[in-house]
Amino acid sequence: MHEQLPDICRVLVIDDEAVIREGMRRILEGNAVQVESVASGRAAIEKIQVKDFDVVITDLKMPGMDGLEVLSAIKILQPGVPVIIITGYATVDTAVEAMKSGAFDYIAKPFAPEQIIEKVKKAIATKSAIAENNRLKKEVQTHHGFDNFIGESPEMQKVYHRIMQVAPTESTVLITGESGTGKELVARSIHGKSNRHEHPFVAVDCTALAENLLESELFGHVKGSFTGAVQSKAGLFKVADGGTLFLDEISNISLTTQAKLLRVLQERVVTPIGDIRPIPIDIRLIASTNKNLGTMVAEGTFRDDLLFRINVIPVNLPPLRERIGDIPLLLDHFLTKFCEDMDKEICALAPDALSLLENYPFPGNVRELENIIERSVVLCEGNLINRCDMELLYEKEESYAAQGFIPKSLEELKEAKRHLREQAVEPIEKAFVMSALKRNNWNISQAAEETGMLRTNFHALIKKLGISVKDEQKHHL
C-alpha cells in the first residue's frame, strides 16, 4: 500500500500517450489526488488558464508544443506551480536543462509508482512551504504593529518575521538590544505564539537578586538548607515546567550560577539547594541581554559554552534612533493611551515639541519615549503639548552634572544611566564605584553588597573602568 499524500491536491498530467496518462491517474488517485489529463501542450495551456493546479506533470517530447514550451507558459500563467518533467533515458540531459529553466524535478522512463508518489509529495511540500513563506512576508509587510509592538519600519518587520519563524519551534532564543527596546515583549510574543502558550511564562530579572537568592529562586531549596529557609520552595525552573522561562539580563549572573545553569540546560534536570534528588524539567529557555556577551567571554566574565548553548536563535532589537520612521506611530499610540487613562483632551504636539523629538537620540529608546509622552500629558494644561511640557532627560543630565550627583545604589545608578548619553555614563559609574569603596573601607564585597550588586558584577565594573583598588586606597590614606 502506498503512503498517502498530505491532503487533497490537484495534478494535471500532460502526455500524448494514453497509457501514460491512465497509468498516472491510477497511481495518484489512490493517494488523495484529483487527476486531470490532456494529450497536448496546447490543451494543457487552455486548462491552466481556467483552473488552478498544485502540480503539473508533463512529457518532455510531444508533437506540437513540447514540455519545455509548456514549462515556459506555466511559469507565466501559474508561477507557483511545480512542474515535473517525464523523460526517456536518451533525453535526461534535456530534462536537467529544463530544471535549470524552472522545472521542479524530472522522472525517467520507465518509472515505478513509488517514484511518482514521492516526486509529487516533494513538489506539494515545496509549494506549501513557498506559499507559507510568501504569506508570512505579506502579513509582516502589512503590520503597523505586532502584538504589543508599534512600528512598521523595515527594521521592525525583520523582528516580527523572526518571531513568527522561531515561535513554533523549541529552539533557545537570545534577545539582544539596548535597555528600553522591548526585549521582554519579544519573549512574551514568542511564548504566546508557541505550542507552550497554555503553560506558564515565567520572567526572572537577573539584576534584581543577589547571587544566593537568584540560585534559590531558579533552582529551589529544601527546608533548612540555609539560614532563612524555613520551608521548602520550588524553583522557577519547576514553576515554568511545560512553559517558557525568560532570563532577563542573563549577563548579570555570576560564573558559579552560570555553571549550574549550563548543567540544567544540558541535563534538563534541577537539583534544589540542599537536596540530592534531581527533578526533571520541561522548559523552553529565552534569555536577553543589553551587553555584548562575546566581549564578556573574552574578558572571562561569561562562559563561552553557556553562550553557545543560549545563542541558538538570535533576535536583535534595533534602538529607536535606528527606526525613526516609527516615532510618529509611537507618538500617536502613547498620546492616545495616556489621554484616555487621564481623561484629557490633548489633540497633538506643538511644532516646537515635535522638532525637539525629531532631533532627540532617545538613549532610553521606546521606554523613554513612552515616559516623555506620559509626563507631557500630565504636565500639559491645554490641548497642545508644548516644548516646556516635556522636560527631556538630557536636561536632567545637565542637572546631574550641576548637582555633582553620585548614585549610592544599583537602582540609583540604573535610573541615572537612563538619563545619560553614552559619553556621560562612565564618569558617573566611576563616581558610583569610588564612593561605594570609600564608604566600605575599600572592601569590594561589602561595597557590592551595600549597593545591591553581585560581587562579580561589581568587580567587572571596577575592571571596565580601569580602577586599581590598591592604588586608590593608598592615594586616599
Sequence-ordered SSE layout with sheet pairings:
Elements: E1 9-14, H1 18-29, E2 33-38, H2 41-48, E3 55-59, H3 67-77, E4 83-87, H4 92-100, E5 105-108, H5 113-141, E6 145-146, E7 149-150, H6 154-166, E8 173-176, H7 183-192, E9 201-205, H8 211-219, E10 220-221, E11 233-234, H9 236-239, E12 244-248, H10 255-267, E13 269-270, E14 279-280, E15 284-289, H11 293-299, H12 304-310, E16 313-316, H13 327-342, E17 348-349, H14 351-358, H15 365-379, E18 384-385, H16 393-403, H17 410-417, H18 422-439, H19 444-451, H20 455-465, H21 469-475
Parallel strand pairs: 1-2, 1-3, 3-4, 4-5, 8-15, 8-16, 9-12, 12-15, 17-18
Antiparallel strand pairs: 6-7, 10-11, 13-14
Q: Quaternary status of these chains?
A: single chain
Percentage of residues in DSSP E strands:
5-15%
Number of DSSP strand runs: 18
Strand-pairing-aware structural class: alpha/beta
**Cα Rg:** 31 Å
Between the first and last Cα atoms, what is the distance in angstroms?
A: 90 Å
Strand order of the largest sheet: 2-1-3-4-5
User: What does the overall shape look like?
Assistant: elongated
Summarize the main sheet: 5 strands, parallel
Poorly predicted regions are: none
